[in-house]
Amino acid sequence: MKKVVKFGGSSLASAEQFIKVGNIIRADKERAYVVPSAPGKRFSDDIKVTDMLYACYKLAAEGKDFKKELDAIKARYQEIIDGLKLDLSLEEEFKVIEKNFKEKAGDNYAASRGEYLNGIIMAEYLGYEFIDSAEVIFFTESGEFDADLTNEVLSERLSHCKNAVIPGFYGAYVDGRVKTFSRGGSDITGSIVAKAVKADVYENWTDVSGFLIADPRIIKNPQAIEVITYRELRELAYMGATVLHEDAIFPVRQQGIPINIRNTNAPEDEGTWIVGSTCQKSKYVITGIAGKKGFCAVNIEKDMMNSEIGFGRKVLQAFEENGISFEHVPSGIDTMTVFVHQDEFMHKEQKVVAGIHRLASPDSIDIESDLALIAVVGRGMKSTRGTAGRVFAALAHANVNVKMIDQGSSELNIIIGVANEDFDTAIKAIYTIFVETQL
Ligand code: ASP
Fold it and tell me: Taking CA atoms, which of 39, 230, 250, 418 is between 20 and 30 Å from 425?
């Protein structure tokens, strides 16, 4: 068995956290390849090293003095080195960084130093080989991740190391210029490494015991999901549930490598397994609930709409012409509603309305704002009767007015539209009926 383990920023924010991580890795010989993030927050108002680096580099790029800011970053690493009692100095590394900042090496380079330096410390602490990700993870000239070249170079390189530390978040163009993934991108690196070594599992260690059934800001201590499929995860992630970078799924998904989300602060918890498919039923009929506020509904009415061929296309063309993507389009006999993101739609609203009038000649158009969409997701729904009934009964009891219902043909999710102000109440009602009453 081979495992790739990725640790997030909060798992590596201090020497104390590093020690927990060291214990986790040493407890299992199979944890052979380690992908660290940069040091994250030690307490809630702390600043992540990545953010410190961006801010520091901004000064450098403006030609301003950045010594104080760079010293603060140095101090974060020194605190870890001292706490681990390592015989390691990053002095030379910081000289190079300072010089490159002065030469305006770019903010991608600057941000990448967070994981680069943490990787050096981690390799020293574990006695593992350090591999600079700029030598093994590649981007094309147009800035796309180059999966084929990366896999070729990385798997060849790792086939010669029993153990290695490969810093997360960055790689390089073929000419050596450093480029980062988008924020949270160390998750992607972990997945790429797991694919390259054909790992049996990709463990993603963070500060929660897995992917939670609902948002903990709305539900107090929600339970963690035990097993979730990639497709379910995608539905929930799209609706705002975050635990893993969206793009982290693709490399391992192709290879059928499961992801196990684990908690560095509670390593005994089994966490969440993210898998391709499973015969394991989820504990409850639903796997998870997620949602987002800030949608608008554009209601379009026209008598005899049902018999007018091409009406829907003309309406949607008005959105397309204005570069607005739509989320859902429920329709009736003489009505059609288009759900869009409010912030995207707001400044183009009158143009879109004029466009619909011009292209489709409706009888009336009415816009409703401040709506929320909630996704109730679960592979178990397909084989269970009455799920929708229970969702709507729960919402009715909680006095929530349902504005829109959309069940995808996959029967994997039910999307519900409610007013923004009913958002929390609706999620609580759904969680209670499916999870707390354990039916
Ligand atoms: N350190 C980077 C960030 O803060 C990448 C990561 O942690 O995954 O976004």
Answer: 230
> If pLDDT is split at 50, 70 and 90, which confidence band does 410 have?
confident
Q: Which of 156, 191, 207 is the C-terminal boundary of a domain?
A: 207
Query: Are 199 and 294 in the same domain?
Result: no
Neighbouring C-alpha atoms within 13 Å toward the C-beta of 134: 13
Distance 110 CA to ligand 1 centre (A): 12
The pick from 186, 245, 246 for probing ligand 1's pocket by mutation, whose C-beta has the most ligand atoms within 8 angstroms, reads 186
Whether residue 242 is contained in a domain is answered as: no
Q: Whose CA is nearest to atom 2 of ligand 1?
A: 184
- Contact 181 CB / ligand 1 (< 6 Å): no
How far is CA 68 from each of CA 72, 73, 286, 328, rounded to the nearest angstrom? Answer: 6, 9, 51, 50
Q: Is the C-beta atom of 206 inside 6 A of ligand 1?
A: no
pLDDT, one tens digit per residue, over 312-346 is 999 999 999 999 999 989 888 999 999 999 999 99
Q: What mean pLDDT is predicted for residues 387-405?
A: 93
Residues 6+ apart with CB under 8 A from 233: 211, 244, 249, 274
pLDDT at 293 (0 to 100):
95
Question: What per-residue confidence (pLDDT) applies to 113?
Answer: 98
**Atom number, ligand 1, closest to the C-alpha of residue 189:** 8
* Distance in Å, CA 247 to ligand 1 centroid: 14
Contacts of 322 (CB under 8 A, 6+ apart): 348, 351, 352, 355
The answer on 193 and 323 residing in a single domain is: no
